[in-house]
Amino acid sequence: MPREHGDSGTFVETVSLEDVLGVFDVVDGPVILSADVAGQLDCSRETARRKLQALYERGDLERRKVSRRVVYWEADVTAETMGYDETARDAPQDAGDSIEGTRTSTASSAAESTIDIDAILSDIEVPGFGEKAEARKTAVRAVLEYLVDHKEAESKTLKEIAWEADSETYANARSLWSNAVVKALHQIPEVSSAGERQSGWSIDE
Q1: Where do the DSSP E strands lie in the chain?
Q2: C-alpha of 84 from chain center
Q3: I need a surface site. Which of 96, 102, 116, 133 has the fewest CB within 10 A?
Q4: What span, in angstroms and rounded, lies between the C-alpha atoms of 12 and 106?
């Protein structure tokens, strides 16, 4: 579902909230992911996440964080029925989605960590302004949550995670990684790089 030009010549998104709700009718439920929305409606992951967030805030959807992912379901389907606990509406928004483990109620390592990711993100600077800066911080968040879960990781892995979270504000994964994510990671005292070429990263809680 590509974007169309409006009267002013600017792009106008053609994905409506009702279109997103319609995805529940065409994928195996009862939960959906931003990847499902992006695939079914031919839009970007970022657009899909924004639409899902809008539906959540409007009360049409519930959501739960699973590992470093977020799953969504229709509000009239009870969390208890699907095996989720009642903290669903308190689950933070996250980058990317995965269906693995969606029916468990186990809290993620990131949720139990002493690292305050929200506080870190509020203190660091990333290139750009407005939506671009927020999208790049989304990529940094995804990287941090992976590090909290795994304690250390190779740059290649983290680069892929960052690109999955934000594939729109830079031309490629390498540019996003080197121009935004690495610069952000260097601002975080708890995060350390390993090797002269920064081949690995770790986090110290």
Answers
A1: 4-5, 11-12, 61-66, 69-74, 152-154, 191-194, 200-203
A2: 20
A3: 116
A4: 40
> Does residue 74 sit in helix, strand or coil?
strand
CA nearest neighbour of 139 among 111, 105, 163 = 163
Per-residue pLDDT reduced to its tens digit, 71-81: 888 888 655 54
Query: E strands, 23-149, where?
Result: 61-66, 69-74
Query: 189 preceded by cis ω (within 30°)?
Result: no
Measured in degrees and rounded to the nearest 5, phi and psi for residue 154 equal: -75, 150
Tell whether the torsion through CA atoms of 42, 44, 47 and 48 is positive or negative. Answer: positive
Alpha-carbon distance of 58 to 174, in angstroms, equals 36
Residue indicated by tokens 């992911």: 33
Amino acid, res. 82: M
Residue 12 backbone zone (phi > 0: left; psi -120 to 50: alpha; other: beta):
beta
Q: Report the distance separating Cα 153 and Cα 49, nearest Å.
A: 26
The two structure tokens encoding residue 15: 């994905």
Could you list the beta-strand ranges (E) of 14-118.
61-66, 69-74
Supply angle C-alpha 111, 115, 117, rounded to 5: 80
Look at the pTM and tell me if it is higher than 0.85: no
Q: Is 57 left (phi over 0), alpha (psi -120 to 50) or beta?
A: alpha
Instruction: Work out the pLDDT band at 95, boundaries 50, 70, 90.
Output: very low
